[in-house]
Amino acid sequence: MSVEAASLFDKPGHPILGAVGEWTQGMLGGSLATSLCVVAIAILGLLLLTGRLQVQRSLEVVLGCFLLLGAGLLATQLQQLAGGVAGEQGTGGEQIIVPQTSAAQPPPPTNYDPYAGASLRRD
After folding, report:
1. What SS3 class is residue 116?
2. CB-side neighbour CA atoms (13 Å) of 102
3. What is the structure's pLDDT at 9?
4. Minimal CA–CA distance to 52: which of 61, 60, 43?
5. What is the Cα gyration radius of the chain?
6. Are 96 and 88 within 8 A, CB to CB?
């Protein structure tokens, strides 16, 4: 058996920009960003209580946190509006966006035993 080493000149098997975008989205919308926004708002509250910060500046930071955490949803909505993606119409004329569902995994067989290959004593 010979294992071929991948060359640096070979094209990658997956799109790099897509992976970078997913990583960036994970970082900006993940638990790290959420925890940083919580800490920032807590510090803003303390500064507001002591009178060291103006209300206008604190509202700008809070709005920035909302934009940061809601960026994925905002981008999706803007893409759907720009692309003219048609959703179902609600009773009041508003557009209802229906998420696309992927094919469901078939359930395991009814006699499925996850320990079938384990070495157990059968006395």
Report:
1. coil
2. 2
3. 72
4. 43
5. 25
6. yes
Per-domain residue ranges of the chain: 16-85
DSSP result, 12-75: PSS-HHHHHHHHHHHHHHSHHHHHHHHHHHHHHHHHHHHT-S-HHHHHHHHHHHHHHHTHHHHH
Burial 61-99 (b: 16+ CB within 10 A, else e): eeeebeeeeeeeeeeeeeeeeeeeeeeeeeeeeeeeeee
Three-state DSSP at 88 gives: strand
**3-class DSSP state of 79:** helix
Query: Which pTM value belongs to this model?
Result: 0.46
Tens place of pLDDT per residue across the chain (123 aa): 555 666 667 676 667 777 787 887 777 778 888 888 999 999 999 999 999 988 888 999 999 888 888 877 888 888 888 875 545 555 555 566 666 666 777 777 778 777 776 666 666
Centroid of chain to Cα 79: 16
